[in-house]
Hints:
The structure holds 2 protein chains of 2 kinds. Chain A is an alpha/beta fold. Chain A has 2 domains: 163 residues, P-loop containing nucleotide triphosphate hydrolases (Rossmann fold, 3-Layer(aba) Sandwich), CATH 3.40.50.300; 69 residues, no CATH class. In chain A, the strands form 2 sheets. Chain A has a 6-stranded mixed β-sheet, with helices on both faces. The longest helix of chain A is centred in the C-terminal third of the chain and has 16 residues. Chain A starts with a strand and ends in a 6-residue tail after the last helix. By secondary structure, chain B is mainly alpha-helical. Chain B is built from 22 helices and 6 strands. In chain B, strand 3 and strand 4 form a beta hairpin. The longest helix of chain B has 27 residues. The termini of chain B are far apart. The N terminus and C terminus of chain B are likely disordered. Chains A and B meet through helix 2, helix 3 and helix 6 of A and helix 15 and helix 16 of B.
Amino acid sequence: MAFLSVRDLVVAYGAIQAVRGVTFDVEQGQIVSLIGSNGAGKTTTLRTLSGLLRPVSGTIEFDGTPIQKMPAHEILSRGVAHSPEGRRLFARMSVEENLRLGAYTRKDEAGIAQDMQRVYDLFPVLGERRTNKAGLFSGGEQQMLAIGRALMSRPKLLMLDEPSMGLSPIMTQRIFDTVKELRDEGTTVLLVEQNALVALALSDKAYVIDLGRTTLSGTGAELLADPRVQEAYLGENVGT
Amino acid sequence: MTATATPETPATPAPAPRHTGRFARLLDAAAPRSTVLMIVGGVLTLVGGYLPWATFVLNEGPYPEKATLNFFVDPFGVTGFRLHLVILGLAAIVVAALRRIPARHRIVRGLGIGATVVALINGLWITVEGGGLGAITASEGSIAFGSIAALLGGLVTVLGASAGGLERKPVWTWKLPWWAEWILLVVLFVIVLLLVAAVLTSGGQGGVVNPYAGVVFLSLLAALGGAFAALNASGLLTWVSVVSERHRTFSVIVLLIVALLLPLTSAGTEYWMTVASNIGVYAATAIGLNIVVGLAGLLDLGYVAFLGIGAFVAANLSGAAASHIGIHLPFVLVMIISSVVAGMFGAIVGSPTLRVRGDYLAIVTLAFGEIFVRSAQNNIGGLTGGANAIPNIPAMGVGDFKFSDSIVIGSLRLPSGVLYYFLIVLLVAAVMLVFAHLKYSRLGRAWIAIREDEDAASAMGIRTGPIKILAFLIGAMLAGLAGAFFAHKTAVVAYDSFRFLESVTLLAAVILGGMGTIPGAVLGASILFVLPEKLREFSDYRLLLFGLALVLIMRFRPQGIVPDRHRKAELTDPDVEDVAKEGPGPLPTRVEP
Lengths: 240, 593
């Protein structure tokens, strides 16, 4: 059994089905990407995994336990952290306060302080400006804070929704380098990206989601080489 | 003394900067002569204070006293608003002349604005009451240009100060020995007490007997506002707040004692004790509402219903003849029961918040408030007395001793109602304590997170549903507590004390004072409930003026009078300074997705 295994997930907003049968596995210690165009159902899938939405049908098993009916805070305390689309920082709060809220479900003060230091080591720019308001940061720094905040719950599985959104290519590369670093330290990462080229280059495994269904899968390199993927998602990036 | 002063701003400002904006040309032209202009303005203000203000006795009697008609012959005997103008003018002259004072222009501008508003208020009043400009210029052989001179003086002062270039607020880092700082704080708090008493009693009791109460009060407010702005510009207020932050517990205790001493001041009469107690009731309620709106960000338009529920529960358990339930419980127990019942209703009203957000939530709470008032009006369940209200609620008391009695200790005689005042001060203090503890607790952080971004909050593992209901529950409990007090104090509980307008006023108090802060809620409640009391003679225009004041405050200080800044971080960490200097933006800075 995989670390995280999603089977035939169906999620609807009222009468509209946004996810119509998503199936994938995430192995421990890997970076797994879900790629796909706008509106394919990637974000909906992540929101369902973290308990913010209820699936209509299908199963989600994390670390051997079905979690599809659990409330968000329980899923989080089992070790699944979600850095939402658009970062969703608490803009009027300081870096420190944002990180503290990331550790909301924990009560071990010593461990929290330790993890906060770890985030500052990972992103020194956050450490330098820990009392500054998050809203005053640049896009890249905000993304760092969003990842840092998600790490504060000491997750086993870190889910990142569009971390490259609105970032320069250089900043995107820096963020993804950090993601790789986290994976090498033992955190499993589930990544949702529109920027397929960068995501695939990084991923141990990837799935293509199209119109709410998983249509293709393979290692990052396999998908990068797949002509269907090239045509649909990489476009001019590869050059024809 | 180990005092060291290190003002950050250089004592002499850089050469006059170029101005931008609407008055750029005027300011640029005035810039080289800014000091002269400030001094001229100050002198004009001073002269205005000594000139006569009215050419004849107004219909309602001399305003505000006979002296308004006279050239002032006794330079040290000047009183009232003219004294305020003399002080503002003198202060402006002195500060303008002393070039070494940091942030000199900013200080003078505060004084100038104060003088302008004082002159405007009194001049307008005399003009309107006297039936034309003749009342403040010249007619029937007598002349009175006081208001015009003072107004001109104020404007010239502001012009000079603005033209000179406004400096940054200096930062003072004086550190005195602890005992000196304690003495300083005690002295300052006593001054605050005397000022509060002066503001509260200024102009006397409003109404027919005293037609000038409102203007005198407004004029004093304007003068104090100017002085406050000047002190704030000098950086001294910030320094004092740092000092009191350093001795936090001491400050809180002194403040509490000082509040209990109010009956010993000029406000120590039965009437003012009642006014102060009512302010206390609304302050406690506003702090409760501040939990719901200020911390958790849930807009509640029917909040006063919880005050009403608390009051009616207390009325029914008080043993009043009109109450439906014929039992009489000790008032401590009554207060607890009222609070719990109100809290239960709070949780019930709060439960739809799981499903609705924002505007929709506001409508749900509005509907609840209306349901409450209509039910109370129609005496549904026989618990509210309907249009007859529940009168003759006995005063709180132990045995023969009643809270409404006056007390005599030796030669000191305290007015009746003073015990209620003491009780409400303690009650408000307790409510503040609850609020302060909650705000910095885990629960408080969860509320603030929900206010900022509910989705992100639930992604952090915050159980948003129960935590939102908890905000309603605790807020309603505090209002219920205040309601129980209110019922005993006023002795009558009627449905029309809890109308929609009261909810809106409470909400305005919270927003006006500054969302999420204790002093903000207390200040807001005081202003909003003292103003109508003072502006009685404006009766028809009362709400209009009130609304106008709200619009103006929201336009010029949208973050509220006492904004919620993350004070500690700002005061202790120099890194944040640059951000803090820019001031809190009027609107939340949203993270762009």
